Structures are given as C-alpha cells and as structure tokens.
UniProtKB/TrEMBL annotation:
Protein name: Neutral metalloproteinase
InterPro entries, alphabetized: Metalloprotease_M4, Peptidase_M4, Peptidase_M4/M1_CTD_sf, Peptidase_M4_C_domain, Peptidase_M4_domain
One GO term of the biological process aspect: proteolysis
One CC-aspect GO term: extracellular region
Entry superkingdom: Bacteria
E.C. no: 3.4.24.-
Species annotation: Streptomyces daliensis
Role summary: Extracellular zinc metalloprotease.
Transmembrane segments: none
Peptidase M4 domain residues: 75-184
Length: 361
C-alpha cells in the first residue's frame, strides 16, 4: 500500500505517559490526582481514536490548487469550559475579533503561526496541503495536564497549576501537535518503536522551527527546547525536551530525570509509551540540531527543507526506522543541493554524530 493512499489518524500527546505515570504515584494528592485523571482521559481518547480509525479511514486529500493569494488559514477555536466533550462551544472564528480569553487568542495565533511557516517556507497549504480548516479546543477537562492532536483537532488543557501551566503558552507545542497532522497526511509513520519516535521527532523539529520562524532566530540563537513555557517554577527543569542536549530538560523530584538519549549508544528498549516513542525521539532530534547548527542561518531554510522533502517524498515506509529515514534525508539533500554540497555533508555528519548508519529499508 502506498503511504499516501490512506491516512491513519493517531492520538498524540505532548507530555509523555511515563512522566504523568510517575507524577500519578506521588504522595501529594494535589500532584497525583490531576496526573492520574489526565492519564485516564488520554487512555480513553486513545481507545476512541482506534475505534473511529477502524470505522472511518480518512480519504486522501487532493493537492492544493488555490492561488497563493487565496491561501489563508481557516481557524475555529472552541471552549470546552473544563468539560471533556469535544469540540465545545465555538468562541472565535477566522477573522473575528480577539477574545477576552488569552488561551483562545494564543491557540488562534499558534494555529496561524503554524499555517504561516508551512505556507511560506514549504508552500504547503495547511495540514493536508489542500486548505484543511484548523480547529482547536481550549480549557479541556479539569486541571488536564496535556495537549493532543486526535486526528481532527488540537486540544489544550489548562494544566494543574502545580507542575504544568496552560498548554496554549508554548507555540512550539501547537506546532508540534499540528505537525502530527502533516505526518498523518504524508509519511503516515506508524506510532510505534522507531517509526513512532520519528513521528514524535518530526513534530518536535517543526514545532521548534515554527517558534524560531516567529522569533526570527538563527539556529545559533534558538534554545532548541520543546515546551519551555510549560513548567512551573516549582519544577527543576527548563522544558519537556531539549533537542540540543537530550536528557537534560529536567531533573526533578516529582517528574524524575529526562530519559531521552542523544545517540544510539543509549537507545532505550522499553515496552511502554509505544516502544519509547517520546524517549528515543531524542536521537533524530539531536541529529536535526547538529545539521541545523552545522549549516547555520535560519534552520527552517536548508535543514528544515531537507526534513520536509523527506517527510513528503513518498519514500518513507510507514514502519521505517532511523537508518531508513536517514537514507532518505541524504537522498533528498543530494537531490536538492548536490551530493558534494555542504548541505549533503552536514546531513552525513549529523547522523554519524548520533550513531545512525543510513541504510534503505
């Protein structure tokens, strides 16, 4: 089956289950209870997504035919009002005035920032390249400590206020979740083991690029952190993940220590979290960081272009591993820039530095 012939929606959260699981076992009920409820909600959403996927596979989207001038986002923001029914009450639509609710406005702006990067940098017209409307729901659940893409929309919790702040705060979280949608409509990477870690990593890469694009940062100026605004002051940590230095994002009595490896030497073999999709994503994340800083300038330009060409190439099998993904990045770098180019050489170096040997699946 061609990877583009059907799109399997997956339920993807920004906070990994292993983090919430640890918090849920804390002796302090103010920390443990919201984490336990968040885990339970995530489990039921995951089950619902599997059922609807079996019943109703999405049709492939036709390529975009609109003129560039007509390519505008179509955003709708809903408010769940701390309930768990989706989508909630419609509170802001495309072009309407800002809300008095900061979460609504941040979600609206974040959807727009994501749309803008994909259109301006890669000529991609929304998630499906055919102008797919962008929908988001804020204030989901009580003290819900996560944000997710459910195959149809973005959903944000308010956090517990103890460990996690409002999930609309970091624009890279919004970009991360929407990029799961882009992956769903392109490479369709299976959400398990190395292909799942690649699915997560691609979302981190473009989430970070969306933040860098909005701030006008070069690769050297960027912090390469995912979710830097999420953690409260009581947490010993700077973010959920670090692409620059996987494994250093947090080291906290409640959250534990960031388990991400930066190289294959420390690859984590685990049965939890779909085979460690949020953990081993540190390896391709770090490869992209090495590539971007090696090339310098704006990371969304050359480094991001190579990753985007790879994701949308049709050459990735849904179950591809790190080595197969690396092989396609090399092929795409050679195709666009030449096999003796600085870009191609930097891709070779980036995978070598994390211990991945490019080989075709």
């Amino acid at each position: 089956m061609n990877a583009h012939s059907s799109h399997i929606p997956v339920f993807c959260t920004i906070v990994p289950p292993h983090v919430l699981d640890r918090i849920s076992r804390n002796a302090d009920a103010a920390l443990a209870d919201p984490a336990r409820r968040t885990l339970e909600r995530d489990a039921s959403q995951r089950t619902r997504r599997r059922i609807t996927t079996v019943r109703m596979p999405l049709a492939a989207a036709p390529p975009s035919v609109a003129d560039d001038a007509d390519k505008k986002p179509e955003r709708t923001i809903y408010d769940a009002k701390t309930k768990e029914e989706l989508p909630g009450k419609k509170v802001r639509t495309e072009g309407s005035k800002p809300s008095k609710d900061a979460s609504v406005n941040r979600a609206y702006t974040g959807l727009g920032a994501t749309f803008e990067l994909y259109l301006s940098a890669y000529d991609r017209y929304s998630i499906d390249n055919a102008g797919l409307p962008l929908n988001a729901t804020v204030h989901y659940g009580e003290q819900y400590g996560n944000a997710f893409w459910d195959g149809e929309r973005m959903v944000f919790g308010d956090g517990d206020g103890e460990l996690f702040r409002d999930f609309t705060l970091p624009v890279d979280v919004i970009g991360h979740e929407l990029t799961h949608g882009v992956t769903q409509y392109t490479a369709n990477l299976e959400y398990f083991s190395q292909s799942g870690a690649l699915n997560e990593s691609v979302s981190d890469v473009f989430g970070s690029l969306i933040k860098q694009y909005g701030l006008g940062q070069t690769a050297d100026q960027a912090d390469w952190l995912i979710g830097a605004e999420l953690l409260t002051d009581r947490v010993e940590g700077v973010a959920l993940r670090s692409m620059k230095a996987p494994g250093t994002a947090y080291d906290d009595d409640v959250l534990g220590k960031d388990p991400q490896p930066a190289t294959m030497d420390d690859y984590v073999h685990t049965g939890s979290d779909n085979g460690g999709v949020h953990i081993n994503s540190g390896i391709p994340n770090h490869a992209f960081y090495v590539l971007a800083t090696e090339l310098g300038g704006h990371a969304w330009e050359r480094a991001g272009q190579i990753w985007y060409d790879t994701l949308t190439s049709g050459d990735l099998k849904p179950d591809c591993d790190f080595s197969a993904f690396a092989a396609v990045t090399l092929a795409k770098a050679a195709e666009r820039y030449g096999d003796t180019s600085a870009e191609h050489g930097a891709v070779v170096k980036s995978w070598s530095q994390v211990g991945v040997t490019p080989t075709e699946n």
